[in-house]
Predict the 3D structure of the following.
Amino acid sequence: MTKATMGMKVSPGAVKAGRVTFKVKNDSKDTVHEMIVMFLADPKKSLPYIDAENRVDEDKAGDKGEVSELDPGKSGSFDR
């Protein structure tokens, strides 16, 4: 996320292998956000980024699931 100006607080920092439920809350006061889970084939390489759109290229990165379009203060979840 070196190009992004946003961040995430993660708790817990690690989980056991298997099905996981991601519970997400948008703490922003004025911006719609989404949380996307992606597979990193090589953790040493950066995610593919579209500079002109200031975002990760989800198609090239391999989107594995998401909580999309959360309005400020709203929550959502998904299982993976």
